[in-house]
Amino acid sequence: MEEPEVHPDLEPIAFLLGRWEGAGVGGYPTIESFNFGQEIEFGHNGKPFLTYVSRTWLLDDAGNRVRPLATESGYWRPQPGRQVEVVLAHPTGIVEIYIGEVVFNKIELRTDVVARTESAKEYTAGHRLYGLVNGNLMWAYEMAAVGHPLTDHMSAELKKVA
Ligand code: HEM
């Protein structure tokens, strides 16, 4: 099968397409802060959504991968008026629906719906910022969880992998 063309509706978020790799810092009031490595892949199949997978690893002081941390996957669905809907699933028993806005190379997302399995940790809301800065993908994430209001949990800077 031929490589499909990028659907025109994807234009506002097409800058995300491809594989990204880099590192970031995580923390929360309830945990020690840590360094992590991350790979994100945004793909498409010609339809008007992006596929999304993120994988992360704990990094030691030398920058070596110690063990897997969070992974998440889902779909990014651009809507008219530079709006975007994002659905994400987590292996921790959480699913989230984000609604957001694309402003040039910046995307701001807020959770509209969060659902948890009975065994999942108490998590109630997320706020994410993604931006293209000097060709790198920067993102930052605040979450409301385990009794805390929206508070920084992660930020990272990723480079495009050729
Ligand atoms: C780059 C992405 C992320 C990384 C590397 C990461 C990593 C971590 C680590 C290492 C911990 C502490 C140990 C643990 O409880 O497993 C933690 C706690 C937690 N994370 Fe994340 N996380 C990420 C994204 C998320 C997302 C997207 C959510 C929600 C959907 C989330 C929700 C939580 C919760 C609820 C806790 C428990 C806090 C507590 O009980 O004190 N994390 N995360």
TrEMBL record:
| Keywords noted in UniProt | Heme, Iron, Isomerase, Metal-binding
Q: Which residues form a coiled coil?
A: none
CDD domains per UniProt: lipocalin_heme-bd-THAP4-like
- Motif GXWXGXG is found at 18-24
Looking up InterPro entries in the UniProt record yields: Calycin, Nb(III)_bact/plant, Nitrobindin, THAP4-like_heme-bd
Q: Which reaction does it catalyse?
A: peroxynitrite = nitrate
Molecular function in Gene Ontology? heme binding; metal ion binding; peroxynitrite isomerase activity
EC no. given is 5.99.-.-
- Cofactor binding comment, as recorded: Binds 1 heme b group per subunit, that coordinates a highly solvent-exposed Fe(III) atom.
Q: Which cofactor does it need?
A: heme b
Protein residues bound to heme b: T30, K121, H153
Note the superkingdom of the native organism: Bacteria
Look at the named UniProt entry and state the broad enzyme category this protein falls under. Answer: isomerase
Pathway the protein contributes to:
Nitrogen metabolism
* Job of this protein: Heme-binding protein able to scavenge peroxynitrite and to protect free L-tyrosine against peroxynitrite-mediated nitration, by acting as a peroxynitrite isomerase that converts peroxynitrite to nitrate. Therefore, this protein likely plays a role in peroxynitrite sensing and in the detoxification of reactive nitrogen and oxygen species (RNS and ROS, respectively). Is able to bind nitric oxide (NO) in vitro, but may act as a sensor of peroxynitrite levels in vivo.
Recorded hits in PANTHER family, A to Z, give:
PEROXYNITRITE ISOMERASE THAP4, THAP4 PROTEIN
User: What protein name is recorded for this chain?
Assistant: Peroxynitrite isomerase
